[in-house]
């Protein structure tokens, strides 16, 4: 679930990143550390140093990785599958729509799933880009619905959740970005879309229709790429954290076979 999805607007070459083994280790640790605060990481490093000192040796990357995982409770089996399908759904749709690189996926936080994605800056700000963003944000819910037949509340519940972000984008398309179906040239911002929806039921219906269309579009993409979607979910379930190279290896296969 993308409760705290990180966005990076720059592009990097996966091949260049793989050329340095040290970079690969750092990427693995960064992927493992998704969801941790700065204070959490400081504590993990402090404990890793203490462990190495007791063993009369230098601190290792394995000490840090063990420290990250040791601070997290095990995720129940069924919940781990749900998170794996949810995050794989986001990744597959993100890649299929060529929004940018998928830098990492993690379901090992004990607090939900995380994904770290990048966006191609050259494609931003068009109607197509916003519609693609909506499909990507709704893809986790679509994945749960497609495979598990029932959705969880993981897509919503917070101001930075999938549903909150998608609703805000759809609201802005109607009111501030010039892509609305009613008075598109009027700039009508508002800090609280929820309050506007309560008063303007027509606007609420138009925004909801955008979200429904995005959900259907995401589901269509996942059905068309079902083998790769399931392969990525299985790999994420097993590994619990995957860096860009591991994710790209599976997603690139879909480009060759689709």
From TrEMBL:
GO terms for molecular function: peptidase activity. Residues 83-247 form the Peptidase M41 domain. GO terms for biological process: proteolysis. The keyword rRNA-binding does not apply. Residues 26-66 form the AAA ATPase AAA+ lid domain. Keywords: Hydrolase, Protease. Gene3D superfamilies: 1.10.8.60, Peptidase M41. This is ATP-dependent Zn protease. It comes from Rhizobium sullae (Rhizobium hedysari).
